[in-house]
Amino acid sequence: MRKLLSILMGAALLSGVVMQAPLPSFNQFNQVWAANTAIQPGTSVGGIQLGVADSSLKQNPFGLKLTTSGKDTEYEGQTVYYYFYGAKDANNNYPLQVYSDVNHKVFIFEINSPVFKTPQGVGVGSTEAALQKAYGSQLKKQQRGRLYIQYSLGGRKGTDFYVKGGKVTQMLVRSY
């Protein structure tokens, strides 16, 4: 990465381009990326809080491309607005799916990518054992059908971890 930056800077100097501001370092880039993908259980994802106006979602706060957005009038019997970020995976899920209510307030983040992590390092792909070690007795366990186990952290505003085959497969940060 540093070699690539050196080559690019050299090419810019040779072509006569004057750089107004220094390029961010690799560590600065990683810090920004980590902030954009940080999960605060029951509170926020990438610094975007539950309950915030969905207009803030249009400014690419997560470092992922806003792939599609729209209105769904049949989401569990209510009208919602959706914002899907990144490219679909093999299961037809986007890395991050965000929903807001009829009043345009964010009420759920659906996380399907391992790049998003809690402060304890738990994310999609983490083992069930790592999840239990990180949150222990704070978790409420519930069987969801034959395949999934749901672990809930918090109350009305909380985070759900869905586990299949001993691995976290999806996370929901929600306020309902």
Describe this structure in words.
The chain is of the alpha+beta class and 176 residues long. It has a single domain (29-175), classed as Pathogenesis-related Protein p14a, CATH 3.40.33.10. The chain has helices at residues 2-14, 26-36, 128-135, and strands spanning 39-40, 44-45, 48-49, 66-75, 78-85, 96-100, 106-111, 139-144, 148-154, 157-164, 167-175. The strands form two sheets. An eight-stranded antiparallel beta sheet has the order 4-5-6-7-11-10-9-8, with helices on one face. Strands 1-2-3 form a three-stranded antiparallel beta sheet, with no helix packed on it.
Strand order of the largest sheet: 4-5-6-7-11-10-9-8
What shape does the CA trace take? Answer: globular
CATH T-level fold name: Pathogenesis-related Protein p14a
* CATH A-level architecture: 3-Layer(aba) Sandwich
Cα separation of the termini: 43 Å
Largest sheet: 8 strands, antiparallel
CATH superfamily: CAP
Number of helices: 3
Proportion in helices: 10-25%
Please write the string of helix (H) and strand (E) elements.
HHEEEEEEEHEEEE
Number of domains: 1
Using the coordinates above, name the CATH class. Alpha Beta
Topology:
Layout: H1 2-14, H2 26-36, E1 39-40, E2 44-45, E3 48-49, E4 66-75, E5 78-85, E6 96-100, E7 106-111, H3 128-135, E8 139-144, E9 148-154, E10 157-164, E11 167-175
Antiparallel strand pairs: 1-2, 2-3, 4-5, 5-6, 6-7, 7-11, 8-9, 9-10, 10-11
